Amino acid sequence: MLQFLRKYQKFFFGLVAVVTIASFSFFGSNSAIQGSQEIPDRRIGTTIDGSPLMQGQVELLVRFLSTSPEEHGWLEKGQIPNLFNDGVVQRDFLQTGALSLAVQPYLAEIASEVQERIDRARSYRHYMHPQAPFVSAEAVWNQFAPSMKQGVEKLQTAKTSEEALSVLGQLYLDQQKLPSDVLRRILTFQEKQYEWLTHDQKLDHADLDLFGFQTLEDWFGPKTMHLIAQVILNGSAEAHRQGYRVSEEEARRSLQQNIYAGAKKTIDEHELTGQDLQRLYRQQIHFLQRDEAKIVALWQKVLEFRHMMDAIGAAVAIDEAEYRQFSDFACEKLRVDIYELPEALRLKNFRELLKLQTYLDATAVPLSKKRGASLDLPQFLASPSDILGLAPELVEYRYTAEIAEITNDSLASRIALKEIYAWEMEEGHWGSLQNEFPALAQKIGATIEERYVALEQLESDTRRRIDQFAREAIVKQHPEWIESAFAEVERKKISFSLRRKGGQLPFLGVKSRDDLHAALRNAPIQTNHDNAVAVPLRLDTDEFHHYEIVLLQPPSELTLVSFAEASADGTLDALLDKKLEVAYPDVRKKNTTFFQVSHGAWKPLSEVKDHVGAYLYADLLQLIESDAKKTGINWPKPEGGSRDPQPLDLYAQYRMHAYVKESLSALSQGSADTKPLSEQWRLVKKEKEMSRSELQAIHLAALFDEPRPTWSSIIASSPSSWSFIHAKERTKSEKSDIDEMVATAQKSLGDDAKREVMKSLIAEITAKKAIVVSLPEPTL
Fold this sequence. Notes:
Blueprint: H1 2-7, H2 9-35, E1 43-46, E2 52-54, H3 55-66, H4 72-76, H5 88-94, H6 98-103, H7 107-123, H8 137-144, H9 146-156, H10 161-177, H11 180-192, H12 216-220, H13 222-241, H14 248-266, H15 274-288, H16 292-314, H17 320-330, E3 332-340, H18 350-363, H19 384-390, E4 395-407, H20 408-412, H21 417-425, H22 427-436, H23 438-441, H24 448-456, H25 460-476, H26 480-488, E5 492-499, H27 513-521, E6 537-540, E7 545-551, E8 559-560, H28 563-568, H29 571-587, H30 592-595, H31 605-616, H32 618-630, H33 645-654, H34 657-668, E9 684-691, H35 692-697, E10 710-711, E11 715-716, E12 722-732, H36 738-767
Antiparallel strand pairs: 1-2, 3-9, 3-12, 4-5, 4-7, 4-8, 6-7, 10-12, 11-12
Helix pairs in contact: 3-13, 7-10, 8-9, 9-10, 13-16, 14-16, 16-36, 18-29, 18-33, 21-25, 29-31
């Protein structure tokens, strides 16, 4: 059967294509015409002023509101949204927070629709590259719109319809800032940053709209959209009662302006002419209902409702003088130097404290035989050659080179599929395949036809592995391909390091670190003033990876690995674990009760590593505790004769306090450079202008009132992040944001006023039953 389908697959594809195109040609056009037909009108209720509420008007308004130029998903799919709509729901309901008030009395009726959207969010899977999970929609959200991920998580755990609608509204606004077309461009750009990454064809056409929602009806449900439409119509009736009027000509002119603004956002491929705008205007009328008079009349009602709400919001008075006075006070700045610990010395837990002490034991010139005899950091470090004998993992040689890299995969990618099949079909290779893949061992393969059938009957994963085996075998038969590939491949300039022991190897597939050291020591060096081209060092680390290397300068002298690097790459973890393993037999004898389990056996080291370290560095911990108590810390007492885990992390938090305190004392007395500290221990200095509010947040606002220059006390912006400030001079912000502050306050208070009016409007609508939640199905 499969052979039959393969043989005639082109015929079947052609037949399906003809039928599909024919069906779309008829049914697609037919549905488009139906979408623009007028809905027969009927009275379904009464608005708050007694005027009839007509179903056709409600349905038309729902259609009008459902899309706007902000719906980028429509544009990506080649569809034009409603350009007449300038974002009524977004502007008048979502941004003001009025949506939750408008639907509050009807939550029970729309609960099922809201639950559908919660379920959709729970089952939603964002885009993720199949080869590289870090190239994903979620990663882009985290970088550019972190509130989106938080919103998705809130929606997935929403307990009530009210909570879900609130989150949906904010998510809709957030995704407009990072629409699907922008998300696709970012993902495509990230994909191209990795040469080894294959382009994911699905990314070109994947639906990247959040939850797959495109229209407002998708987001909130048809019942909610019908509720919003009826609130607007009732709001228009209230606006009429208050004397608000919008003429037909004003409404038409507003629609024309919306068309122009929407077209500029969506289809601005060239300068729009008057004819272009007229054509778009007619198209939009046709799309909505073909009756311009009804659309203009509908927009009149929307504008009357909007004018009433906007007037209420604008009526809120803001005293600009008070804001200006507050701004002069709050925006005054202080030019300061912030001195803080390097990131690596902000010890987050007791394990990091032990790694620091392990590093100091291996690299510092010993001033005492006791471990951790001082809270200070060493002024002098041992020479790299001395450290080499004690801890070869902490010294390295550094290289700068030009390299070319070839892998068997890159060579195999050149092999055509027919060559792979031909290799597999050869009788001489069939035995190798049967030995390597048990699934083929029982297959008959006396002839090419039998071998072909046997391969076709395999599962897809097994077949894929066989094809890969064949590719690798073909590459091994052609060593000359490597030479020709090196002639074509681009060479890259890189810097790398190599240690005698430990650390990451700079090249993949290296089997012997010593052999690599020897090879690099004898590698050719291409200097800038050397006219001759050095012959590259050929390095075949294994059968899969191949390198050509030319050093651009002689290797460095033996160099000390910094604490930050050794801590991050796992080197210190390995050294510390080895030290704890050696010490554990002696340490556990000091407190057998703590280190034994109930039946007398010793606890595994993995469970008590920190406690073993606490015994090793007991003198250091006593110094840390004593220094912390001087600052007023109520240090927790150990329980049961052991060191409790909570205080152990507290030791890490206060390990660097004394060092920062001594640095503050030295700097404030003008003796900052008396100690030749290693560069990696020096505090990081940052110049900054800080406002009164920023200093207030870290309890240093009093610096504004003290004579300058002056020094602050030691502060901790977070556990272990000790720092202090040198206040130099008072400054004024060059640019006052008073206008922005007033506008923000005006909008906030205006939105509050609009919500109060919405509450009153909804109360009257509810009392007069002026909204019909479940409309009868329209009969076309």
